[in-house]
Amino acid sequence: MSIKDQLLELANKKNSPSVTIAFNTHRTSPDNQKDLIQLKNLVKEAEERILKEYDKKEVQDILEKLNQLPDELEVHKNLESINIYLSKNTFEFIRTTWPLTTEGVWIDDSFAIRPLIKEINRNKEYFVLYLTQKGVHLYEALNDSIVREIENDDFPYTEANYDLSHLFSKGNKQSNQLKEFYNQVDKALLRANPEASLPCLVVSTEENYSLLLAVADNPSIYIGSVSTDFNSPTQKNEFMKLAWEFIKKLQHNDRAKYIAEMQEAVGKGQVITDLQEIYQAALDGKGDLLIVHQDFHQPVKFINERTFEIIDDATENGAVDDITSTIAWEVITKKGKVFFTSQEEIKDLGKIVLKTRY
Known about the structure:
CATH 3.30.1330.30; Nucleotidyltransferase, domain 5; 3 domains; alpha+beta
């Protein structure tokens, strides 16, 4: 199940209490033994808060699940962080590839899903088309890692089934044949990605990337290229380092673009910066673009379904630990865009800002 599917499932679960425990972890030994110690400390904190807020008899099953957590944590599987979701009907570990800016315990009527929203924002799924004289391979990638190689009736193109060296010889005839070959590769990519749901990054020389774009049926699917030695064998680790650097720069530019979009919307009177008004606009489906500075959190206590008071103590009875998670989810479910960013430009507008549709 993808992070997005897990988010959808968890966001719709309502139980009291719903316990979220989130903290940064270590991939390797012996550092990952520290993760077990930290979990035990967070479990103790969660128990104390639950017993403070609820009758012990009513939450006995939750307390039992909490006590099981240290035995269930498989530290050898840890990545950069872990989110644990626990309620009467839920007992789930979700490991993520990004470190958390905020660690701790959240107890509410629903789960704290902000870390998963941020994970979706940071994750990038894409194809990598490896195009060299030695062959053409297609990979499905997530962030800096190859998930799988696409192997079907089209891919890979190798010297075993194509006279590739002949294609790359000099001469007009060979040039036309090469264009035809690249058009076949492009069509094969479209067959592997019929809905054009994933963009494609090409690893090739600039000359051959330009040639591919010139004959592509749908050039917009290609997001760019990184250079490689055209005659080199496939070196996945090397070209994925280049690919991930390209993707990170692309994501940074996208966030900058959305901040610029937000700044432009200010002059049109489409931007809300008051937290209460942002929440109500999100409820009403008016949220087109929400940007939150990654360091901003705000506990609140609801007065009614549409209004709340801002409080300082997230452990106070009846408190919602962080209203930004609720707001972000309302915007997402109503087809808006949500971004958490560390880019300082957003602070000129506020730590949380919403661009409305109208």
